[in-house]
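Researcher: Quick test of sequence recovery. Tokens follow.
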């Protein structure tokens, strides 16, 4: 007898069959770890779910039907704990560092951003030399200004190298806790720090939501101009057999989806319009060239 989905009972039976079919395909689980750091991830308000890493995660989920997907909010320290314990967890936009390579597998690049900048108050511009381009190493060597940073967060290889080589308790403040960028912004407002590193879109999003966009400016960092690949981030999963299989599946989706306008638009929507043309050129010349 042909089953009709038009009757109430038929709808229930069809739904059960569909659930069973999907369930048979989704036998494994994958938990996506998400930091509370707009506009990467936006967990509250009218823009909930519209962060660029929200959108990329959603796109990956739609293609990875073999997994049952869950989400967890996690600061960077918890990311490390979950990976080291070999849990079935991944995160969409992670910089690749030697330390993280010890306990994570990485995909091909999943996100290409403009490079991190230093975020400062406009009235502190002269304290940074009155130039739109600064050397992080020189600032740290001078030791007169305090850079606030998120503990365990990477800002790219060159930026991290300058922090590691020249930072100390006098010239840096490392913060660990919830809502990393927001709380560092509040410290900037209170004068407890002189600058904080972040991505340009991150700076403008937070400044606008706090109503201080006209008070904030960004400084380009010399160390970040050397290597465009420093602006690449990756999907990272636990370094075990499960993670290896997950990365293989994720790479297949990334190769198919990264060239699409939908994928690129996830990040572009958070850029100043004047930045888009240059970003698209770098996207084509750098990001899409890396397929292995």
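Model:
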């Amino acid at each position: 007898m042909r089953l009709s989905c038009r009757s109430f009972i038929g709808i229930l039976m069809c739904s059960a069959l569909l659930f069973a079919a999907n369930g048979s395909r989704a036998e494994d689980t994958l938990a996506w770890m998400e930091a509370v750091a707009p506009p990467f991830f936006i967990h509250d308000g009218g823009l909930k779910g519209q962060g660029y890493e929200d959108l990329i995660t959603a796109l990956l989920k739609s293609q990875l039907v073999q997994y049952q997907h869950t989400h967890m909010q996690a600061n960077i320290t918890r990311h490390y704990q979950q990976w080291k314990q070999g849990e079935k967890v991944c995160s969409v936009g992670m910089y690749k560092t030697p330390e993280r390579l010890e306990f994570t597998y990485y995909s091909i690049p999943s996100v290409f951003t403009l490079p991190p900048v230093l975020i400062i108050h406009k009235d502190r511009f002269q304290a940074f030399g009155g130039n739109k381009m600064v050397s992080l190493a020189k600032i740290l060597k001078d030791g007169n200004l305090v850079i606030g940073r998120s503990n365990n967060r990477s800002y790219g290889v060159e930026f991290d190298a300058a922090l590691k080589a020249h930072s100390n308790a006098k010239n840096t403040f490392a913060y660990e806790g919830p809502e990393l960028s927001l709380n560092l912004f509040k410290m900037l407002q209170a004068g407890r720090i002189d600058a904080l590193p972040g991505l340009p879109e991150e700076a403008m999003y937070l400044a606008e939501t706090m109503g201080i966009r006209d008070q904030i400016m960004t400084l380009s960092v010399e160390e970040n101009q050397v290597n465009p690949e420093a602006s690449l981030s990756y999907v990272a999963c636990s370094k075990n057999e499960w993670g290896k299989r997950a990365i293989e599946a994720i790479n297949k989706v990334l190769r198919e989806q990264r060239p699409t306008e939908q994928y690129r638009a996830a990040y572009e929507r958070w850029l100043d319009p004047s930045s888009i043309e240059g970003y698209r050129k770098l996207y084509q010349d750098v990001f899409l060239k890396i397929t292995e």
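Residues 117-224 form a domain with the D-Maltodextrin-Binding Protein; domain 2 fold (CATH 3.40.190.10).
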